[in-house]
Amino acid sequence: MSQITAGHSVGARLASDETIRDAVSSITDRVEELSGEITDVRGPTDGASADYDALMARAAEVKGRGLLYPYIGSGLGNGALVELADGSVKWDMICGIGVHFFGHSHPELVRASVAGSMEDVAKHGNLQTGFEAYRFGEVLLELAQRNSRLKHAFITTSGAMANESAIKVCYQKNEPASRVLAFKHCFMGRSVTMCQIGDSAAGRDGIPLTTQVDYMPFWNDEAAELVGGKTKFIDHACWRLQQYIDRYPKMHACFIFELVQGEGGFNTAPREFFTSLMDICKANGIAVWDDEIQSFGRTGEMFAYETYDVGDYVDVFCVGKMTQACATLYTEEYNPRGGLLSGTFTGSGQDFAVGTRILELLRDGDYYGESGSIAKHHAAFREQVQGLKSRHPDWFPDAPFAGGDVAGAGVGGMMRFTPFGGDKAKVAAACKACFDEGVILFWCGHGPYHVRMLPPLGAMKLEDWPRVFECIERGLAKAAG
After folding, report:
1. Rounded to two decimals, what is the model's pTM?
2. Is residue 217 reached through a cis peptide bond, with omega within 30 degrees of 0 on the bond before it?
3. Distances, alpha carbon 432 to alpha carbons 34, 79, 151, 425, in Å
4. Which of 324, 344, 369 lies closest to 139 in space, CA to CA?
5. Which helix H or strand E contains 290, and what residues bound it?
6. Which pLDDT score is estimated for 392?
7. In CA terms, which of 253, 403, 411, 462 is 20 to 30 Å from 374?
């Protein structure tokens, strides 16, 4: 709630009311007390299965098809552990595909959420709003401007909408340019425009193709070796980019950079690969758009553009998922004319209160750098997968063009491993078997396919990793059999 001097409004008096604050503390304390009862993986409560099956059937009826995983949360968890509505408990290693970095029932976020819920309306908008959306934007921009030229932020309700705002900004600045450059295997969201840019045929099945996209090769270590090393691969990519520019002069509005690809397989590249392409973009008036909706907060630094030291190149930037509220940031040069960006909703008071608190926790914590907790967790993850491979080498055959060790790859809190040669059906079956054994995983990539983890490193303990991998080992054994 807005921190305005109490004398200015009755609402400000509500925000500072001691009775309210005591009540928020009481709620937070009680949630924390109950959360503490969740300490390990367990099966359903006796007699709960029939009721849970009925819930699943109702959910399937609403959606029109069965759920991918039989997951309906109870509303409570404890850090990396989450309870389902049947009383079972599982390790959550995918966290809503990267949304819950601080896990489940985190006291600081419960406190912020309860306090943020007491405003006069549930939703804020562009026409009528409290200040909390702008407070979130202020904190985000303050952090972003440490190593970039980003100046302004437009707050919105989802990652796809943040991307929609970004592409509009790029189109307007570089009109009449109508084409988009993107990497092979990219993912941009589920809106009509974004599903056309995303490199997935299934994701745009039946959608008329009206967005003109030119795909660039993404870095791959094995491919680089085949063509003669890093320099030749980068030279080839630059040649491809220049071909597109020469074929469609002044027609590219932007080049979308996922510095770490998410759905595409947790792929990344050397800095020189990105900067060589970005230099060509700058020379040709093409916007450099950094999409960090899945990678923000999880790489070696808070922003992936800091990890790869390319912040000065970035014209437009998108963030979401972990931050709860979503945003498009842009430099002064790309600040759009009035009327281009708007919308009924910017989000809820809870979104902004929790999102701001998350940014503060990331800022003030010890997550980043070579000795930060994210680096330590990544090392612990790799150690566990390597142990799994040493015990079960037949589960980890070579997977061509996996882009790293099949037994542990990725960046920071974006972790993956590649069992069963990266075969899609086997990897999906392994993830579902692991779910049954008490750990929630997902997959990524487009061949080979990988087991993907986005663990709640804001709440997870290093000593949790062996317990998580006990479940994973049981699940892979089932899939292998």
Report:
1. 0.96
2. no
3. 29, 22, 44, 11
4. 324
5. strand 287-291
6. 97
7. 403
Q: In angstroms, rounded to a whole number, what is the distance separating the alpha carbons of residues 331 and 50?
A: 55
Backbone CA torsion sign across 185, 187, 190, 192: negative
Number of H helices, E strands in the chain: 16, 17
Nearest alpha-carbon partner for 99 in 325, 350, 329, 347: 325
| Number of residues in the chain | 481
Domains located in the chain, CATH noted: 123-364 (3.40.640.10), 373-422+433-480 (3.90.1150.10)
Q: Where are the alpha helices (DSSP H) in 99-154?
A: 107-116, 132-144
What is the spatial distance between Cα 337 and Cα 335, in angstroms, rounded to a whole number? 7
The answer to whether 146 and 221 have CB atoms below 8 angstroms apart is: no
Task: Residue 92: name the closest of 74, 111, 79, 106 by CA.
Answer: 79
- Pairwise CA distance, residues 35 & 156, whole Å: 31
Question: Mind listing the pLDDT tens digit for each residue in 129-177?
Answer: 999 999 999 999 999 999 999 999 999 999 999 999 999 999 999 999 9
Q: CA 154 → CA 125, 138, 167, 212, 404, distances in Å?
A: 12, 11, 13, 25, 37
Crossing angle for the helix pair 18-35 and 107-116, to the nearest 10 degrees: 140
CA–CA separation, 194 and 177 (whole Å) = 17
Ramachandran quadrant class, 46 (left: phi over 0; alpha: psi -120 to 50; beta: rest): beta
Residue carrying structure tokens 């995303």: 198
Quote the CA–CA distance of 366 and 372 in Å, as a whole number.
5
Q: Please return the burial class of 339, using the count of CB atoms within 10 Å of its CB with bins 0-12, 13-18 and 19+.
A: exposed
Query: Which residues are within 8 A (CB) of 282 and not within 5 positions of it... i.e. 6 or more apart?
Result: 288, 313
